[in-house]
Design brief:
The protein has 142 residues and is an alpha+beta fold. The protein has one domain: Lipocalin, CATH 2.40.128. The protein has two helices and eight strands, in the order H-E-E-E-E-E-E-E-E-H. A hairpin with a 6-residue loop joins strand 7 and strand 8.
Length: 142
């Protein structure tokens, strides 16, 4: 019995001690004159480098999300490539959100992007998590 309690305590210690914090942020704003919504999920990196990000965004309030493949640096800058390389967001954190440009795949079109951080209710977070999971599944399921 003592052995079982010891094993359980050790498991809980390691699970709690090494659990990665997950931060989620929701933004609304514009790409040029088009309304957009962006959901960003930040997770710790076991290697100690910059955090790992995943995210989705959509134009307007539609049902179709665009998955983003995200790179970041320690200065709060992001390179977010749309799944299937249909465009790219180059953004920088600001006190109230994110700002930067959207670039077309051929580099000929560049549009201004301004996003403001929004409150994230538990219900909206659940909807966005489902959208992220569904979009990722649709993109990578064989």
């Amino acid at each position: 019995m003592k052995f079982l309690i010891s094993c359980t305590c050790c498991f809980l210690f390691f699970t709690i001690g090494f659990a990665q914090e997950v931060k989620t942020t929701f933004y609304t704003g514009k790409v040029n004159n088009r309304s957009v919504r962006l959901y960003l999920k930040e997770e710790g990196n076991d290697c100690g480098a910059t955090p790992l990000y995943s995210g989705i965004y959509q134009y307007g309030n539609g049902k179709n999300w665009i998955e983003l493949l995200i790179q970041s640096d320690e200065k709060g800058r992001f390179g977010m490539t749309e799944y299937r390389f249909t465009g790219m967001l180059i953004l920088k954190k600001t006190p109230g959100g994110l700002e930067g440009i959207w670039v077309s795949p051929d580099g000929k079109t560049q549009l201004k992007v301004v996003l403001e951080k929004q409150a994230l209710s538990p219900k909206l977070k659940e909807e966005l998590e489902e959208g992220l999971e569904r979009t990722h599944y649709e993109n990578y399921d064989c």
